[in-house]
Amino acid sequence: MRAFPLLLLGLCLAAPVRSIPAASTFRLPGAMCPGSDPIFRDGFEAAAPIPHNPSNGSGGAFPGNVTRTINVTGVGTRSYYLHLPPNYAPAQAWPVLFVFHGASGSAATAPAAAQQVRSDWSSWADSQGFIVVAFVGNQVQGGWGDPADGPEIDAVQADAFAAYNVEQSRVYLWGFSAGAHFGHGVALNNTTLFAAYGVSAGSLEQYACTDNGSYPPTCAALLSGAQPKIPVDIHLGNSDRLYTQYGAGNDPLRFQNGGWVSGQDLFYTLFNGGHAYTVAQLGEIWNNLCPFALGP
């Protein structure tokens, strides 16, 4: 069980990132997600047009772990970390998962935290067939919420999509702790970019919104206004202070009040444990995110 200190972010709004035009959530045929019911592979699943929007990028190194260094306007030289599955080939467009690490304690240790979450996701990327892109937070505690985060996410996305052939209808997001708080805000404010997202040890009220009026928007306003209703997976420990003290256990109801349906586009797991996640849980999260794409 990987655990980190709970460090809360400054309260500010997530900067928008580059998005693609899309208006609806599309459920993919089960055979497109490895591990699905084999009946789908036998031709019994109803045929449907599958969204396809390749970035047609090329030139990036593969497979395995890759570090790319880019210049971010107004920020400077920054590095980010990818993992390419062993069967990656540029001729095919691949799903991609953006991952956001938890607060590492300092800006100096944030790159190591980014590489750790990349490592934790790598076995699933290899077996399930997707690219991992791990970002590095700019906040002084090694987390998220710094004004540089938005431009850096934009620049990383542009670079990764130019270097690799990404299926832009299948861009996903996951975050842990501070990265989960931030991830709520990024995903819910960019529902025409992300097909689905997951959070481990995260809370809506720590960054994305609030119910007490201390900063805008309210959670009700944010969730009711989000279109389409982006599928979300929430994993939360029953001894996590976010659950026992800070009200994160109310987030599933907030989503339901905003139009999400449990078991359809809202997946909630309350597990025995604290402010942590396991690699096995990452597989559970991917199984809930993988079936979704963005369609016109």
Describe this structure in words.
By secondary structure, this protein is α/β, with parallel strands linked by helices. The chain has one domain (55-295): Alpha/Beta hydrolase fold, catalytic domain (Rossmann fold). Helices cover 25% and strands 24% of the residues. The protein contains seven helices and twelve strands. It has helices at residues 110-128, 149-163, 178-188, 219-225, 241-244, 251-257, 279-289, and strands at 2-3, 24-27, 64-72, 76-84, 94-100, 131-135, 166-176, 196-200, 232-237, 266-271, 276-277, 292-295. The strands form three sheets. An eight-stranded mixed β-sheet has the order 3-4-6-5-7-8-9-10, with helices on both faces. Strands 1-11 form a two-stranded antiparallel ribbon. Strands 2-12 form a two-stranded antiparallel sheet. A hairpin with a 3-residue loop joins β3 (64-72) and β4. The longest helix has 19 residues, at 110-128. The N and C termini lie far apart (39 Å). Mean pLDDT is 90; it is low at 1-20 and 36-46. InterPro entries: AB_hydrolase_fold, FaeB/C/D. It comes from Dokdonella soli. Keywords: Carbohydrate metabolism, Hydrolase, Polysaccharide degradation, Secreted, Signal, Xylan degradation.
Query: What is the name of the CATH class?
Result: Alpha Beta
Q: Can you say what the CATH homologous superfamily is?
A: Alpha/Beta hydrolase fold, catalytic domain
The H/E string reads: EEEEEHEHEHEHEHHEEHE
Helix and strand content put the structural class at: alpha/beta
